[in-house]
Every structure is written in structure tokens, then in C-alpha cells.
Amino acid sequence: MSDATVHVGLLGCGNVGAALARLVDEHADLITSRAGVPIEITRVAVQDPTRRRDVKLAPERFTTDAAAIVTDPDIDVVVEVIGGVEPARSLITAALAAGKPVITGNKELIAKHGPELFEAAAAAGVDLLFEASVAGGIPLIRPLRESLAGDRIKRVTGIVNGTTNYILTRMTEEGSSFAEALADAQALGYAEADPTADVEGHDAAAKAAIIATVAFGARVRLDDVHTEGITGITDDDIASARLLGYVVKLLAVAEELDGAVAVRVHPAMVPLHHPLAAVRDSFNAVLIEGEAVGELMLYGRGAGGGPTASAVLGDLVDAVRNLAAGGKGATLTGLVDRPIRPIGDSESQFYLFMEVADRPGVLAAIAGEFGRHGVSIQSMEQRGLGADARLVFITHRAREEDLRATLAALGEVDPVHRVGSVLRVTGDVGSEP
Amino acid sequence: MSDATVHVGLLGCGNVGAALARLVDEHADLITSRAGVPIEITRVAVQDPTRRRDVKLAPERFTTDAAAIVTDPDIDVVVEVIGGVEPARSLITAALAAGKPVITGNKELIAKHGPELFEAAAAAGVDLLFEASVAGGIPLIRPLRESLAGDRIKRVTGIVNGTTNYILTRMTEEGSSFAEALADAQALGYAEADPTADVEGHDAAAKAAIIATVAFGARVRLDDVHTEGITGITDDDIASARLLGYVVKLLAVAEELDGAVAVRVHPAMVPLHHPLAAVRDSFNAVLIEGEAVGELMLYGRGAGGGPTASAVLGDLVDAVRNLAAGGKGATLTGLVDRPIRPIGDSESQFYLFMEVADRPGVLAAIAGEFGRHGVSIQSMEQRGLGADARLVFITHRAREEDLRATLAALGEVDPVHRVGSVLRVTGDVGSEP
Fold first, then answer.
1. Least CB-CB distance to A293: which of B35, B295, B307?
2. Chain A closest CA to B202's CA: distance in Å?
3. Which of A26, A425, B393, B420 is the most exposed place for a label (fewest CB within 10 A)?
4. Which of B296, B328, B336 should one mutate to test binding to chain A, selecting the residue with the greatest count of A CBs within 10 A?
5. Is the pLDDT of residue B409 over 90?
6. Which residues contact B170 (CB under 8 A, 6 or more apart)?
7. Among A32-46, A82-96, A224-238, A329-343, which is the least confidently predicted range?
């Protein structure tokens, strides 16, 4: 460092980058007192340096040459908020190799290549911090790594995608269809023009992989996550959920069972008295179940420039303090490989919705298929509909594989016209996974 | 350190101390991997070393001589879970002076003497960590100090006393009286035989002082906290709250206004859709409002051996990592003195319950007193009761001092038989303080 000021190289200046630049400017005194030294955003890499941006940074700080920033000897710390795998991965790798601590909010990159990057950071003896990569402004990575460092985490269950939670909230509270609620979300800027990453669960899956990695100290990657989205959720499912005392939420679940790690994203029926049931609109929340701490829920804004920049800045202050203290850098070390439990082996209660012919003997035939595959029914409700009937089942806990076999068999039962949605039913907090 | 193992001196072995000892034993591998070195509880100071305790520690590790532990050169870190001001204060001071990092869960001590102890730790260049002093297992101090290090906190509102929250939940959900609910809480071990510290708000006040200190970097002490308990809450208040769409909660509030800090503990009517309204039983929760992060809520078990020991252990692992990294210790430095805003200057909506004679002109006389003191009425409800009537008022935002003057004047109005409860009404999240 040429002087006491810490010089930051910022890669990307979109929503989050610009919000970060404003915070660093507006909270300069606060940040200096917390970090111990002033922090300056010295260089900013963007695609178009001439674009107008709502930040107080002189035009000459902007460049298109990100690669020059990460090796610039005058840059002390690198903040990456570009997103996506490349060029972020190469840039971060180069920055670490140059001995610079890195802060990133890049969930896709960490979910796909976190373990290699953590190793590179450990080898370089510098920080690689990524609080902003999961659940925006909600402190999650630091509590998992530090506050709960001596506790054994059993399960983490999160609502980690604000877009889908907004859509499901509109469907639940206003009776909107999925298409209407999605259009609303797009109009409000909560959903992208191409909403695939959100509604198909891919965004939540990346976050689930990161959560599992941190919570269990294991190398868990995006490909390990069983992922189902919410595009198949119908008005009928939402209405059934309400009648039965549930709400439908898209959950990211990471749990440890007999040394194996299970990670999945799927819509689920959540009981109304469950702490996650009250998480509405675009809010996120993460419920941690630890052996000693019991249940812990962290709730807040999972996206948006301000909240995400707040998380990046928290990491940045931490990295600057560590630099000043001359410490050897903090990253996720000692990750191990653990078996990933296949989704077919997982157990859950299930909700099933089907349309059948309304005539004698039908229920017996259906119930027979459940029994033959070892799936036991907890409750059934029938609603007449002319010559047809709609049946809603909730099963007792069953293996996913057995449930699938039941479904396949039901497809062959003549009076079953259609098996609609199949949703997992979340147990109470603290119930067996 | 004589070897790679870090030797801990534990002061106190009650609920929390014993839970900590069990965690250190049962999670030894996990802790070693997180801390980088093994942690051993080498010496334990207790009043009666012969008492049977459910911990796997050899009898010769126990002693009555706490003072010898804190200066023992073989002890690397001191954990204090005795509680109360003395001898904890002298012991911690001696440990810091001997260059040992200290972990404490002692809310009374930190609330009364935190600033001096932080200075002693900074002078010695060692950690003084106190996550367990507020809200048990809920990570709060670390998120406020680190995750939100670059954000400006506007207000923190917490349910930080599990006993009173349990009592208020029973009163709300089962119509119990205060006395019945308190007796239940005592039977369940949630309340002490002498419940004063909980029900009069003193316990919450100590936590509020610590929250304000950390959130605003200011020297805030227990004496600065305006404190009201829940002993005056009646069945009528609970019923009125329900009718009006509120629940009664004991809140700890710390906020910053124009450079001044306001800290108070009091029961309040909380709107049903407010995130804190759903915090039931003995759970705690803390809502943080930050400029960039927006609203953030942390929810979990605020007391109990396991959750509190989990928080102590998180701090302990952190201190051990810092020791190993050779850092200079982390404590709260740079605290400043800020004006404390007197409670009379605070503004709020208020709920008032009164019994009056049911005859013509009474309401006009009462309304006149409100108007004369500049307090404007938002809503009023009258319920007949023979010759008497019960009136429930909710005011618009008013200065506390003006409200008090109104109350004093109402006491002189002949048809007013009794002014019952006066409760603050919490605004929506994000409303002006």
C-alpha cells in the first residue's frame, strides 16, 4: 500500500456496484472508523466507461481493462460484481494469485467453482469472501461460519429467491394465476424478461449449493442439487394448500444425514405455523437448525442494490481489517467430499392432486396402488365435479422412489384421468429430515 | 502456549458452562477443524467443586480459585459465565491485563461497564467477545459489527426477553391473566422464583444498552435506558389489542435521531402484520433497520444452556483463530459519547384505556383535555358497562411529555374514574421513529 488508504478495484458497476460506490462515498467516516483506514474505489472495470452512472467517481477511474486492475500493484482489494462464470473466474483467480483479497457476490461462480477458488485463496493467504452471493443483505455465510462455528448444523431451509416468493405470495393472497403473478413481477422489476433462472429454481439451486458447502464443510456443487421450479404450480394447488392449512413456498433445503449431504430445491407445502410460512413478497429467509442452537431464522431482503451492496461492504470492511492486522486471510478451508444422497432416497410427506372418474370402486383401485408400493395415506379429500372427482391426498412419510413408483402405476389405472401436482409437504421445525 | 492445544479457563459451570463443556467434548473434531487447533477446557472455577455436574471433566480440573485461573500462564483464553458484576468484572480485568482473550455472556456487566472493559481489551491487544450477552444463540453482535459494518443502522427493535414473551403469548392466545401466565412460566422454568428482573424489564434494558452501544458505536449504559415492565398489562389491554389488530409485546428499542441515541424498554402494541408480531412463546427476535440493507430480522432461542453455549463457542473459536493468526484482537474501539434523548422528547402513537361515568358531556370534557395538550386522537371506541363506560383511545403521533400532561389533566376530570393502561403503539417497519 502506497499510503494508509486501501485502494479497491471494482469489477462491474451495475446495480450492486453503483450502490456500493454510493455507500463508500456517503458512509466514508463510518467505514473509516470501522475498517481502521479509509477505503477508496480507485479503479472500476465496466463494458462502457462512457455510460452515465449515478456515482460520484471521476471518469478517469473507469476502464474496460479488468485484467489490468486485478494485477495493478496499486490495487489492494478486488470486488467482483459482474456475475456469471467468465470472465469473473479468470479475473478472481488472477487477483488471488497477485495476493489480493477478493470479495464477490457471484453465486453462479461460487456454486460451480467455489472449492477451487477457496483453495487458490488459501494458497495465496488472502481473504475470499462471498456473503452477498446468498440471500443478498441477510448475513448468512458469516453466522454459519463464525457464530455457529462450534455447533453441528443439521439442516438449513431457505426461501432464497425473491422473485418466486413474490409470485407465490400473489397467487396465495390474491388468487392470481402463475402467469398473472409472473407478469406483475416483471412489471415491478422483480423478474427478468426471461424468468427461467428464477422460476425453474436454478438461482435457488446455486444458493443451496453454497449453503450446503458452508454449513457442512463439504464440496457441494450446483450439479449435486436436485432442482424443481414453480412453473407447474396451479391455482388448485394453492387453494388446496390453503384449505389444508399450508402455503406453497419454493424451498432450498440442505441437510446432513449419516454423513451424507442432501441438497434440493423444490416447491413445498409449508404449515402455516412454520416460521417460513410468514415470509411474504420478495423477502428471503433462512431457517437454520443446529444441534445446540436449536432453530435460528434470518430474514430480510435477498436482492436489490442496497441490501446486496451492504453485504459486499461488510465483507470489504472485514477484508480491510484483516489486511491491516496482517492476518493470513480467511477462506473456506478443509472442505471434504461427502456422499450426496440421491433424491430417490429422500423421505417426505407428499401432497397429490388428481382427477378421476367418479364411479364405484375407483377409490379402492387407487388406494390399492398406494398400498402396493408401501406409501401410506394420511388424509384424503374428494370434491365432486360432474362425472369426475378431484382427489387430494396427503401421504405419511414415504421414500421418494416409492412415491414415484406409485405415480407410474396410477398412470395405468383407467379411471385416473390425470395426476396433477405432486408436492412435498414440509414437516414441523425439528422434525426428522 | 505449551503445545498446539488452546487451554481454556472456564469461570462458572452452571447451565451455560456445562453445556459449553459438553459441546467442546462432543464436537471436538468439528471445533478443531474450524479453530485450526484443538480446544481444551483445562481449568474450571466453581463455588463447590464437589457438586455433581453432567460434564466429562476430571475432578482435578475444578477449583474455587478463579483468580488463579485468570493469571495462570498455562491458560490461553478465559470464558466467563458467572454473571453479575463482581467478581466477574475483576476477573475479566485481570485476565485482559494478563494478555488473555476473554469471552463473556454477562449482559449486566457489559451493560454497566462495557466501555471500560473494551478499552482494557484494546490496550492489551486481545479479544473481548460477548455475543452470548444478548439474545442467547441468535447471532446479533457479529452481524451488527461485521456484516453491517458499512451500513448506517437507524433502529433496532427487539423481543429480547423470553420470559415476558412467553407470559404475553399465554395471555394473548389462552386468555390467561398475568398472574396465571407467570405461574406457568415459573413451573416451566422460564421464570425465576423472583421474576422481577424479567417482568420489570431490567433484563431487557441491559440488552438494549448493549445493542445501542454496538449499533451506534456509542457509550450507552444501563442507566440510559428508559425502562417499563409488563406487570401492569391487563386482560383488557390484551383484548383491546386483539380487537384493534395488534398484539402486546415487550420491546427493546434503540434508535439514532439527529446524532442523539434513544434507548427504551416498554410494552407496546405491535401491528399483527409486523414481523415481530409472530414471535411467540419464549423465542426472541431482533429487527434491524439499516439505511442500505433495509429490514433484517434475526430470530431464535434467546436463552437456555444449548443456544447460549453455542454463541459462547462461536466467540471462542473466533478468539482461538485470532490467537493463531497472531492478530491484535478485536473489540469495540472508538466508542463515542452521544447525547441520550430523554424519553419525554420521544414521539409515538399511544393507546389509552380508561373508565369513565357514562353521562352526557363526558366525552367532550375528555377530548378537550387531549386537544389542550396538543395530542390528537386517531380513533376512539366506547363500550358501555352499566353506569360506567370504558373508553379506548389511540392517538396520532404525540410527544411523550404532552401525553403525560394530558394524563395528569385527565386525572382531575371528575367523570374519569380511572386511567388504566397507557401503551405505546408501534408503527410499521420503516416508519419514522
1. B307
2. 24
3. A26
4. B296
5. yes
6. B176, B180, B181, B184, B185
7. A329-343
Give the best residue of A20, A34, A216, A273 to mutate against chain B (max B CB count within 10 A): A34
- Alpha-carbon distance B232 to B199, whole Å? 10
Q: pLDDT band at residue B333, thresholds of 50, 70 and 90?
A: confident
By Cβ distance, the residue of B131, B147, B317 closest to A311 is: B147
Distance CA A161, CA A164 (A): 6
| CA R_g for chain A | 24
Task: Give the range among A246-250, A324-328, A401-405, B37-41 with minimum mean pLDDT.
Answer: A324-328
Give the span between the Cα atoms of A62 and A75, in whole angstroms.
Answer: 14
Percent pLDDT > 90 in chain B is: 77
The answer to whether residue A112 is catalytic is: no
How close B385 gets to chain A, by Cα (Å)? Answer: 37
Q: Answer yes or no: do A296 and B296 touch at CB < 8 A.
A: no
- Residues of B serving a catalytic function are 207
Spot the catalytic one: A56, A207, A249, A328. A207
What 8-state DSSP symbol labels residue A151? S
Distances (CA, A) of A256 to A152, A215, A216, A218, A253: 10, 9, 7, 10, 10
Nearest in space to B118 (alpha carbons), one of B192, B261, B218: B218
Q: Please name the amino acid found at residue A20.
A: L
Residue B376 Rama label (left phi>0; alpha psi -120 to 50; beta): beta
pTM, whole model, 2 decimals? 0.93
Q: Identify which of A295, A297, A327 has the shortest CB distance to residue B327.
A: A327
Here the ipTM equals 0.91
Q: Which residue has the cell 395426476?
A: A419
How far is it, in rounded angstroms, from Cα A121 to Cα A106? 16
Nearest CB to B33; choose among A217, A307, A330: A217
Give, in degrees to the nearest 5, the angle at Cα A209 between A147 and A254.
Answer: 65
Residue A106 has pLDDT above 80, yes or no: yes
Q: Considering only alpha carbons, which residue of chain A is nearest residue B315?
A: A147
Measured over the CA atoms of residue A148, residue A118, residue A220 and residue A199, the dihedral's sign is positive
Integer CA distances (angstroms), B92 to A349, B124, B129, B352, in order: 52, 12, 11, 46
Mean per-residue pLDDT of chain B: 92
Taking the CA of residue A37 and the nearest CA in chain B, the distance in Å comes to 13
Inform me whether the pLDDT recorded for B22 exceeds 60: yes
Model pLDDT for residues B201-239, shown as the tens digit of each residue: 999 999 999 999 999 999 999 999 999 999 999 999 999
- Mean pLDDT (chain A) is 92
| pLDDT tops 50 at residue B2 | no
Helix (H) or strand (E) holding A271: strand A260-271
Nearest CA-CA partner of B229 in B244, B248, B254, B243:
B248
Q: Which residue of B has its CA nearest to A141?
A: B147
Chain centroid to CA B161: 6
pLDDT band at A37 (very low <50, low <70, confident <90, very high): very high
Q: What is the pLDDT of residues B165-199, one digit of tens each?
A: 999 999 999 999 999 999 999 999 889 999 999 99
